[in-house]
Amino acid sequence: MSGPNFADRDGKIWYNGALVEWRDAKVHVLTHGLHYASSVFEGERMYSGTIFKLREHTERLFYSAHELGFEIPYSADEIDAACNQVCEVNGITDGYIRPVAWRGSEMMGVSAQSNKINLAIAAWEWPSYFSPEARMNGIRLQISKWKRPSPETEPVHAKAAGLYMICTLSKHTAEAAGYQDSLMLDWRGQVAEATGANIFFVMPDGKLHTPKPDCFLDGITRRTVIELAKKRGIDVVERAIMPEEMADASECFLTGTAAEVTPVSEIGEYTFTPGEICRQMMEDYDRIVGKTKADAAA
Questions:
Q1: Please, how many CA atoms are within 13 Å of residue 53, restricted to the half-sphere of its CB?
Q2: Hey, which of 75, 99, 115, 261 has its CA 20 to 30 A from 269?
Q3: Does 287 lie in the same domain as 151?
Q4: pLDDT-flagged residues of the chain (< 70)
Q5: Looking at residue 70, what is its pLDDT?
Q6: Same domain, 111 and 140
Q7: 72 and 35: one domain?
Q8: Which residues make Cβ contacts (< 8 Å) with residue 50, sequence separation at least 6?
Q9: Are residues 115 and 211 in the same domain?
Q10: Rounded CA separation 144/166 (Å)
Q11: pLDDT confidence of residue 40
C-alpha cells in the first residue's frame, strides 16, 4: 500500500459486509463510538498467509462487545472469513489485521440503545512493533503515573477503545523521555502491564512470574507463551507482583500480538539482561507462528 497515513491509502476495507475503497471507509463525526468510546477491537497477525489464532481473536471480539452491552450482527464464521478476505484482496501474507465494532450515529447521548452496530476490518503490512535492534537488545520502559483501574470501575477484561487512552498518554510521555514504552501499575500499586502488552519476569527461583490478569487483558499471546514455557518445563507463577520485586528479576520480556516476545532491559531504576529464557521464548514463539529464521532475525 502507498500513502502517507492510514486515511490515505490504496486498498480495500471490509465495511459492514462489503469491500469498500480504503479512502471511503468513513464514519460520521457524531458517531457514538467517537464521543462515548462505545467501540471494541482486535489486533491480529498473519504469518505466511495464516492469521494466528484467528478464532480466539474473533471470540474475544464478541466477548468485548458483550461487555459493552451490544451485539455484533455477524457470526464468528463470517468475521473469520472477512478477515481472510481483506488480507487476500490487499495481497497481504504477512501483516496486521484490525477488526473494529462500534455504535453508530443514530442517537447522540449517553443512552444509545437504538444505534446501529457497525463492523469494519482493515489489514496492512506491519513489521515488528519494536525495531530489530530494540528487540535483540531489550527495550527501555518508564513507569507510568497512570494506573489500571479496578474491575469495579471499568469493563477491564474487554478490548475496548476507551481503556487505551491512558496507554496513549503513558506511551507518549515515555517516548518523550527517550523510552520505548511504559509500565503501568494497577490501582493497588501492583505491576500490571505495558501499554499494549503483558509482562513476564524471570525470578531467582528460575520460574517465570507474571501478574495475575484480574484488572487488565489476559492476552492471547500471553496465554500462548505460558503454554510454550510449560512445554519447556519452565514453571509459570501468576501472582501479585510489587514494583520493588523487579530488583530481584534477572530477565524480563513483553508479550503481545504486535510486540510478539520482546525482551526488556530497563524499567525505571530496574535493569535486566535478556538471557536464555528470553531467547527460548522468542524462538519458540517465532516457530509456532510460522516465522522463518530470516524473519525472526530481522
A1: 19
A2: 261
A3: yes
A4: 1-4, 127-134, 136, 292-298
A5: 95
A6: no
A7: yes
A8: 290
A9: no
A10: 9
A11: 98
Instruction: Give domain status of residue 178, yes or no.
Output: yes
3-state class (DSSP) for residue 91: coil
Cell numbers representing residue 140 in the block = 527501555
Q: Which residues does 261 contact at the CB level (< 8 Å), separation at least 6?
A: 221, 225, 253, 254, 255, 278, 281, 282, 285, 286
Q: What is the pLDDT at residue 296?
A: 41
Q: What is the reported pLDDT for 290?
A: 84
Answer with the one of 124, 152, 173 that is the final residue of a domain.
124
Bridge partners, residue 139, by sequence: 264
The amino acid at residue 286 is D
Count of residues making up the chain: 298
The residue type of 190 is Q
Pairing verdict, β 270-271 and 260-267: antiparallel
Average pLDDT of the residues of the chain = 93
Integer Cα distance of 18 and 85 in angstroms: 11
| Measured distance CA(159)–CA(40) in Å, rounded | 6
- H runs (alpha helix) in the chain: 32-36, 54-67, 76-89, 132-137, 165-176, 220-231, 276-289, 293-297
- With a threshold of 0.85, does the pTM exceed it? yes
**What's the CA gap between 47 and 96, in Å, rounded?**
9
